[in-house]
Amino acid sequence: MQTVKIGTTTLPAVGIGTWHIGDDPVKRPAEVQAIRSAIDHGARVIDTAEMYGMGRTEEVVKEAIEDYMRDQLYIIDKVLPENASHHLLERSLDQSLRRVGTDYFDLYLLHWRGTVPLAETVTELERMVAKGKIRSWGVSNFDVADLEELWRLPAGQHCVANEDLYNLDERGIEFDLLPLMKKHALPLIAYSPLAQADTISGRLSSDPLLQELATNHQVSIYQIMLAWTLRHGGVLTIPKAGNPTHAIANVEAGDISFTPDELDALAKHFPKPTSKQPLATI
Ligand SMILES: NC(=O)c1ccc[n+]([C@@H]2O[C@H](COP(=O)([O-])OP(=O)(O)OC[C@H]3O[C@@H](n4cnc5c(N)ncnc54)[C@H](OP(=O)(O)O)[C@@H]3O)[C@@H](O)[C@H]2O)c1
């Protein structure tokens, strides 16, 4: 399994996404099992948020992880922008901690930028680190200008990761954002790495090159898509799987490596942008 360093922690590079987990009560047992199967096969990182199901997803995470040692896991949670203020952040964090059933998060992200000044949010995040409620903090849906603004703040350099949309359909961040993050050794957390099961463009699951690579590696095209997000290092990829078989396949995709020829073929077939793109989000 490939690894990624976030802050001072080295982690398996395939994590567990949780958006929409818990939405359908009928699916809940399989979803709990999917999270457990991913952990049992080597995943350590769980990505969740107060936004997901308005807290319901965090409660499913709690159920899934109750039999695991807390320090075996690396839990990422996110605060909504409207709660990222002096008055509300700690309350939001406490509620998330209670729903997940833990007394700290390894990483706490500002989910996206809102109207609360960044300096106020960073001050609160730093205060939560000092209180031991979070081990580190980061951001999500930040573009180049957002990171530059962040880094100008006194504690802005303490940010340990930026979580953005990244998959074969959405390579916009490769033009300027990813190079900037590489320069600052800031890892990317790649969200929707499977293009939401190819529901964005709909062109990936029937793509002949992806099918050929999947056949050659004896894996699925989704595993190829996932491995592609990890090809240059410095990336944690967080597929969501409510199906335990998918969850295991995703962890196993962390072992796939491509030859230079395969990477060339993918780069030609899915070209990266040659100009600045607006930051894509979901
Ligand atoms: N920070 C942000 O703003 C933000 C935004 C979006 C997402 N995220 C995070 O990123 C995570 C992943 O993104 P996402 O949930 O949008 O989409 P995604 O991971 O790209 O795709 C999830 C879909 O792919 C399917 N799938 C998973 N593994 C598969 C496999 N091996 N083979 C075939 N299909 C497979 C899932 O089906 P089953 O469920 O049936 O297995 C589900 O329909 C989220 O869950 C969330 O934690 C963060």
From TrEMBL:
Residues 14-268 form the NADP-dependent oxidoreductase domain. InterPro entries: AKR, NAD(P)_OxRdtase_dom_sf, NADP_OxRdtase_dom. Signal peptide: none annotated. SUPFAM superfamilies: NAD(P)-linked oxidoreductase. One of its GO terms (molecular function) is oxidoreductase activity. The record marks K78 as: Lowers pKa of active site Tyr. Substrate binds at H111. It comes from the Bacteria. The active site is at Y52 (proton donor). This is 2,5-didehydrogluconate reductase.
